[in-house]
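in:
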């Protein structure tokens, strides 16, 4: 089977490498162009490009995959199937019609739940206890095609976006191979999605990471988990006007204490940081003050002389105080 692979991020790399190990005939790899990255704005190659280079595969990096010249180039490759994993561009009908066996897409959610660009993150933000990977046939909609295969997995209460990203990235390759074998054997019955069950997972914004301490401890912990890759949950220490990222936290209590306004800090004898919310308390584990490296909460207490009664506020509250 002649496979044309389209992918960009490191989520796609295990699937590409599995296709290589299983001796599929990969006629080309389409990935996004190199982009400026870091403070120096040096061009950085996508992870899929690096994996393709290591395996001496033909690489194409079109700025717009729908360009006529790109479509003509893909037709000349004569793929039997196109595999799409975290590619980053929507395929037009002119490409969807190229392979006789269609275009298979790997999506890290249990479609039709969490259609869109950030299904892993939103599953965590919304406190889901289960997710999975869907292999679907691409159509011109956004994650709306028929389901070929699905596999479920549980989400541990301490799992964050980085861990779940890797977990689903490693689950996807075996499921993809099963879907390709199903295509080769011409097995029937793909399942249309039930549109009435649709939920969406739009791109995250930087503002989404702003912690509102008037929410519950569970909601804030889920925000920290879901935004762990980007934009990362953040807040301000009112006393020092210090911007801080909360990288990891745990539930301490689900009970409220009306004597402490949301965002109020309590420091224990062993220098743990507990923060009151509208419902419950959180223990901060790892933080990153502005312009500094990531550190433990214990080191943060020592270095910044955090004390009981100090208070964290949201950026909205900070603006109101100015």
């Amino acid at each position: 089977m002649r496979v044309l692979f389209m992918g960009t991020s490191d989520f796609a790399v295990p699937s590409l490498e599995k296709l290589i190990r299983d001796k599929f005939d990969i006629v080309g790899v389409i990935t996004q162009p190199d982009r400026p990255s870091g403070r120096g704005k040096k061009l950085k190659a996508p992870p899929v490009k690096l994996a393709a280079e290591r395996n001496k595969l033909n690489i194409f990096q079109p700025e717009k995959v729908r360009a006529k010249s790109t479509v003509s180039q893909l037709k000349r490759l004569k793929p039997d199937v196109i595999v799409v994993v975290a590619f980053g561009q929507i395929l037009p009908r002119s490409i969807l019609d190229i392979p006789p066996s269609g275009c298979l897409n790997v999506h890290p959610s249990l479609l039709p739940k969490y259609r869109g660009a950030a299904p892993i993150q939103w599953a965590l933000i919304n406190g889901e206890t289960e997710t999975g990977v869907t292999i679907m046939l691409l159509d011109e909609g956004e994650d709306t095609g028929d389901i070929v295969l699905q596999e479920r997995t549980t989400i541990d209460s301490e799992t964050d976006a980085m861990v779940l990203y890797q977990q689903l990235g490693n689950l996807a390759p075996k499921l993809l191979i099963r879907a390709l074998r199903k295509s080769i054997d011409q097995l029937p019955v793909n399942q249309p999605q039930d549109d009435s069950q649709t939920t969406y997972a739009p791109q995250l914004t930087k503002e989404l990471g702003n912690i509102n301490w008037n929410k519950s401890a569970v909601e804030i912990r889920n925000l920290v988990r879901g935004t762990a890759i980007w934009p990362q949950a953040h807040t301000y220490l009112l006393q020092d006007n210090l911007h801080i990222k909360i990288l990891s936290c745990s539930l301490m209590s689900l009970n409220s204490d009306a004597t402490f306004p949301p965002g109020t800090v309590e420091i224990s004898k062993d220098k743990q940081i507990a923060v009151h919310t509208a419902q419950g308390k959180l223990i901060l584990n790892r933080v990153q003050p502005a312009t500094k490296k990531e550190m433990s909460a214990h080191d943060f207490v020592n270095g910044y002389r955090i004390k009981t009664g100090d208070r964290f506020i949201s950026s909205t509250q900070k603006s109101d105080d100015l």
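note: The first strand starts at residue 2 and ends at 7.
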